[in-house]
Specification:
single chain; three-stranded antiparallel sheet; two-stranded antiparallel ribbon; 43% strand; globular
């Protein structure tokens, strides 16, 4: 399981957190996506909303933008956009 060290930059200075598993996966994807954000359609994960919920609980600001999609299962989906300043400092895969 991969683990990464992130720094969340807030008012009280940087908060360092070590994330692993799907939380690490979700935050890494949010960082890589930038202002375009991620959707479960573009970045499939079994429980994307749960990973975002857990990251928000850690103090990370993530916006949810609701969008429409067409196709055989037309409907609405969430686009998650990272609003907090976060940096990845170390990553280990193993």
């Amino acid at each position: 399981m991969s683990t990464a060290r992130f720094a969340l930059h807030g008012r009280e200075g940087p908060q360092v957190m070590d994330l692993k598993g799907r939380e690490e996966w979700a935050l890494s994807n949010l960082l890589a996506a930038g202002e375009n954000g991620c959707t479960p359609i573009d970045h499939p994960g079994p429980r994307c909303s749960d990973y975002v919920f857990k990251l928000r609980h850690r103090g990370i600001d993530i916006a949810t933008i609701t969008g429409k999609h067409d196709g055989p299962y037309a409907g609405h989906h969430a686009r998650y956009v990272l609003k907090s300043k976060v940096e990845c400092h170390e990553a280990s895969h193993g």
